């Protein structure tokens, strides 16, 4: 419920008191140092967005819990303070806790809190007015970020807003000195000054900030109401002097808010993440400070301020911190962190566990392994567009919860991501405008019982949940929506529909759990599902069955576990500093990291000692952040808790690192290990709950428990009478009792649904230890899932929706495997790859949304391999253990030569035939950094034939009957400049396909081969119907059967499109007749690229989440003249067609449908390198086109690509390059009612002589505007000589640059939409 003004629950269950005395000692010793502290109240409070949970250990050792609304200003100003007041008033001998008075701390021993204040402020963008100070040339760095758009099929390219109000560029610059040649410096610098950085790297100070200029800018900011500052400069992780200078002046000027310096917030390389984190600190910390001030004012004395009563907050890493050290960037996961601590300390046994915290709008999942005795932390994650670089629990969130809305779209059941929230809420809440949600589905199925909820609904807040209203809403959906869209679904009953939505919601929540475990090489079946949160116990058993897990554990305080977990949390001090990438095994490395570790350990221990902890209580863990040379995947590695660094420890660090690397990535490398950072985590361990072993030996001798009453509930596709049991003082449940499902168990603060084939043991502590399924029940379950005989044509929309999730989930997990196991920057960091699964005929079933230009092309590659190897002439066939590889664009369905496709058949038996045959195909396509050709990077600007672009593979068995043909593929790729990376990445693609094969076999085992193959066909039909509907609707709106569009490449080659529509059938002919002839250049595009561009555009135009497969193209007939730009001969050069012409095809399709103005129409392909030493490739963002209701986004990748760009500090650390400028290109977007997005400016200066090449478009013809909007500006490529002379190098150029020269790329802007000219009525009529 979200409307109650004062909803309280009290758990005085006698069973839970067995270990109260033990639990009362869980508060850390510093909270027991005060006199008679054990005779005081110890509070643990989780302040959530809707409810505040209060857990208190009374002086008697008894535990009580309370739950009240987080915001109820008509009854109290602050929920945590009110919760404390109410507990003290009820249980304290003092009667001084009046509702209007401040709370005395006299009887309080300690207060621990978790809060969503920072999270909500971040999501709602409600922080302190702040400004960012950043190095000159990088004003828009955070605006551009990684340059990837969040949703690749969203034409608006919408990105979350930034935290700062203003940016101030500081004219300062330092670079790393490593790559400078002797006596060589840029002509723009007047003097050279060298300094040692924190990492012992030598930095070159090119420009110092002017204090007077800094002071003037700070004073100006104060006059404009800026309260807080984030200061982040290039390479300040190692050289912080300039940040310190600015920070000191800011203090002198008198900024009232937070002044955050990036080297203090998180001294790690990667300026984008570090700057985001610093902004989060400056933006959120004042919000937390204001909340703390208000909280402290609710107390009558200085007990909390003076430290007599410890007040601590749980941070995102699961550790406790004193309130005065609780910073904004460390608080974002404070809310769910308590729950992770709670389930990790209360779930019995040594089995790894998955935390499942289901709330109203979202669900958090995490993992904990008690055998490791430490939480799984990540050092970087992105939350609502803000990259946070700090130790934090590895918590994955999915937008599915009790309030998730229910939709029917294109024959599929869809749950979320929209939420009903508190207002208007689900239909059953009796509010105007209520919408169908998961809560309504549980209610109509009898799994939620209105009589067990407070009567707090309706206008007078005195009525129960409204079951009838929920049923009426489902009936309307069943009759109007489903009846109209799918006659095959008419046999569904209301209950089957509601049950289907529950199944789809469960599958949505299963996906992140599979990713969290299988992505890191863990066996999901060996985990316990530790369930907590308000809605979680209603779904946990069904999810465990779907995931193949055999155990669910529900703690007696599961509804308030985030608060309860605080009583067991560790006090933590975590400090680290960078090292500069020192070699672990170097003979002089001992001193290099031994001294920083000693210093950090002393610092961390001092922090905890100041909180009152003794040295004996403190445990220190040493971490080295290790990575292989030439890679970016660092792993925080620890072996001991001593902090020693002798030779044995160094060796064991390598062993532990390689074991973890092998488990996560599937291989190890023969490369040196580098130390990026050293870290000390000092903690005072919180004690675990006293847990009694859960065995049935404690079962009582009397008769089995009788239910409090029975009710009708929907289980197993039918209504059944099930028992309702109360696990509190109302009921008769006792330790040792075992309940068989189906049943409903009522705790004081949650409802547990016990599914069929599940049994629940009541533990001596009053928890529920649930065994999920048996051998026989699993057999029954599988039989239930074989829906109907294959001869029937009826499609079950519930199963169709579930299979949509499962198919896409397999493709996504293949992609994660590829990312984990790949070596190259292109695949591991830039994510330039795609993964998909196909029918046995090669038809696309599911393509994970990775790189759009791969979408339709891979299907052609798989179909070609089927034809080739089964051809009567070749005659070899495809055998079990074979893996196929190709990349030829014209002959083998490729896109361009660097994109190599690896195809693996999935063999198995069908029916009663034991002979192995191909059941499906899986495939992965990845961009290899070099495969030969006339230029490093295999993206030559001036290639004229395909042979000049690299190795050509039509068909080859990369693996033959299980043996990887290293010799054969080496011969094919012999001209590659980086063959070891090619081979490693090909093995990674094979591994990704192997992961997909395993998951498909699991799916077949779970559902049967007939069912899986039928639903592959159905899911293609579903996508086809969605596109047919799009075409019919457009025909109605357009009023004509024919639409025409035209654009051109910079060389004048036209791309012409005539679309002929059939409103009756929902089909279209895409006729490219009139398109220019094949060119003696490399922007020819094979047909597969056209298919990909069209399928991408159609998917964008549907504007809804539909399956992405070959069905999208089924209503489309293509006419592409042979010998044209879009259907060239087999020997034509095509490397630019994939990255340039593809963008223009999308522009033409969107122009025909009048969807939006043109985007930048280019990928701005930049390569640089030195033969025999290194090569580097990147694509550069530009402006997005505006649309009928939106402005174009600036500095973002559009349409056919979505690859990331290398962080500026990583770029300068790894290559002899200085990035002089990377920002937006002002006013390059077209004007209009809605403006086009601006392009970017990227300026690079080499520190040694090297070749730099650019392959680009839209340097001559502007991106078009639409509906009266102005076109975007063309891009420019400029070579800046040492003397400052600017020379245009055109759209395609490869040239040699020397130190002091620069290459500046100015990418195109997007077109505008709508006229800005106001016309008269007469003019409008004309």
Helix content bin: 25-40%
Strand order in the sheet with the most strands: 3-2-1-4-12-13-23-26-24-25
Count of helical stretches: 28
Question: Radius of gyration, rounded?
Answer: 32 Å
Shape: globular
User: Sheet with the most strands?
Assistant: 10 strands, mixed
Distance between the termini: 59 Å
Integer average pLDDT: 85
The count of strands amounts to 53
Textual characterization of the structure:
- The strands form eleven sheets. The chain has a ten-stranded mixed β-sheet. Strands 18-15-14-21-22-33-32-29 form an eight-stranded mixed β-sheet, with helices on both faces. Strands 35-34-38-37-36-39-40 form a seven-stranded antiparallel β-sheet, with helices on both faces.
- A hairpin with a 4-residue loop joins strand 42 and strand 43 (1067-1071).
- With 1326 residues, it is an alpha+beta fold.
Brief digest:
The protein has 1326 residues and is an alpha+beta fold. It contains 28 helices and 53 strands. The two termini are 59 Å apart.
Layout of secondary structure:
Layout: H1 20-23, E1 41-47, E2 51-57, E3 63-69, H2 79-91, E4 108-115, H3 117-124, E5 130-135, H4 141-144, E6 166-170, E7 173-176, E8 193-196, E9 202-207, H5 211-223, E10 228-232, H6 241-253, E11 259-261, H7 262-265, H8 271-296, H9 303-306, E12 311-314, E13 319-322, H10 334-346, E14 353-358, E15 363-368, E16 377-383, E17 386-393, E18 396-398, E19 404-409, E20 412-419, H11 438-444, H12 467-485, H13 494-518, E21 528-532, H14 540-547, E22 551-554, H15 561-566, E23 570-583, H16 589-609, E24 619-628, E25 635-637, H17 647-665, E26 673-684, E27 709-715, E28 718-726, E29 738-740, E30 743-746, E31 751-754, E32 758-762, E33 768-772, H18 775-785, H19 797-821, H20 825-828, E34 833-839, E35 844-847, H21 857-869, E36 883-886, E37 899-908, E38 917-927, E39 956-960, E40 963-964, H22 966-972, H23 979-1007, H24 1009-1038, E41 1042-1048, E42 1054-1062, E43 1067-1071, H25 1087-1102, E44 1116-1119, H26 1135-1152, E45 1165-1170, E46 1174-1179, H27 1208-1214, E47 1217-1224, E48 1240-1246, E49 1250-1255, E50 1276-1280, E51 1286-1288, E52 1292-1297, E53 1302-1306, ...
Parallel strand pairs: 1-4, 4-12, 5-6, 5-10, 10-11, 13-23, 14-21, 21-22, 28-30, 43-44
Antiparallel strand pairs: 1-2, 2-3, 7-9, 8-9, 12-13, 14-15, 15-18, 16-17, 19-20, 22-33, 23-26, 24-25, 24-26, 27-28, 29-32, 30-31, 32-33, 34-35, 34-38, 36-37, 36-39, 37-38, 39-40, 41-42, 42-43, 45-46, 45-49, 47-48, 48-53, 49-52, 50-51, 50-53
Helix pairs in contact: 3-8, 5-6, 11-12, 11-13, 13-14, 13-19, 19-23, 19-24, 23-24, 25-26
